[in-house]
Specification:
four-stranded mixed beta sheet, UDP-N-acetylmuramoyl-L-alanine:D-glutamate ligase, 34% strand, globular, alpha/beta, 28% helix
């Protein structure tokens, strides 16, 4: 059952109390991959002429987190709070080499801030897991992030913005990639921050956890979403951080060996 409330899109599924209740909050987009041949340069300018052959579309950003949860967990029921405005990311890619020539993003400048209601707060409190996928497009801000973290039982934040210590401490875990971690060096070493390191695995609490199955990287699109979803679901099931980190590494290594935004 889907309920659309003016201002925000809220996907609500009929609940089964035996399943894990997961809420994903954050911006969603449509990812479009246009695979092309590029066999010659334009006579008008030194740029390749692209001949499209195949188009693939999928839900991206927070939408990809939802897809990953559905892929790795049959015992979960997923709720989603996202923006009503459409965001699209269109990539033109060489079909043979998977080289991306250009990416065109549209709709980000129209996103409005999420106005959290009493009903939203109660739903956050009810959830077994809250995942915040913050792409810093205007839907969330530091005040909202802190409040969501404080309301949650078990939570993880994946954010692209410069954070504060208050926000990070309000969440159970925070997942950053190397670039995002460098952008937050002013916070020092916080105990609940996981840093993903690409094909090197991830680090947590001063310990590096190497990828158990490093594979050739074909496409890194959406790999962070896979790591976040895999880690927090496994942690909920096992309460074992080390086991959950290794599992998330393994799932991420699967998706980077595939084209486009993929799930394990």
């Amino acid at each position: 059952m889907c309920i659309f409330i003016f201002g925000y899109i809220k996907t609500i599924l009929i609940m089964n109390t035996t399943k894990i209740k997961i809420l994903v909050i954050g911006e969603t987009c449509t990812d479009t991959f246009i695979y092309c041949d590029a066999n010659r340069l334009s006579p008008e300018a030194p740029v390749p002429v692209l001949t499209p052959h195949e188009v693939k579309k999928n839900d991206g950003m927070a939408g990809n987190v939802v897809q990953n949860i559905n892929s790795i967990s049959t015992d979960s029921i997923v709720y989603k709070i996202t923006q009503p405005e459409l965001i699209t990311k269109t990539r033109y890619i060489d079909k043979k080499t998977n080289h991306m020539f250009i990416r065109v993003d549209e709709g980000e400048n129209k996103v409005k801030r999420f106005e959290m209601t009493y009903v939203d707060k109660e739903r956050i409190r009810e959830m077994d897991i809250v995942i915040v996928s913050d792409y810093d497009k205007g839907f969330l801000d530091l005040v909202l992030l802190k409040e969501i973290g404080e309301l949650s039982k078990l939570s993880i934040l994946d954010s692209k913005r410069k954070l504060t210590e208050e926000v990070i401490n309000s969440f159970t875990f925070v997942k950053l990639n190397k670039k995002e971690a460098e952008n937050n060096q002013h916070l020092g070493n916080l105990k609940n921050v996981i840093t993903t390191l690409g094909d090197e695995g991830c680090s947590f609490s001063g310990i590096t956890y190497p990828s158990p199955k490093p594979q050739e990287t074909i496409d890194v699109s959406g790999a962070g979403d896979t790591f976040t979803a895999s880690f927090i679901v496994k942690y909920y099931e096992t309460k074992n951080i080390e086991l959950s980190l290794k599992y998330a590494n393994e799932m991420s290594s699967i998706v980077v060996s595939k084209r486009g935004v993929a799930t394990p």
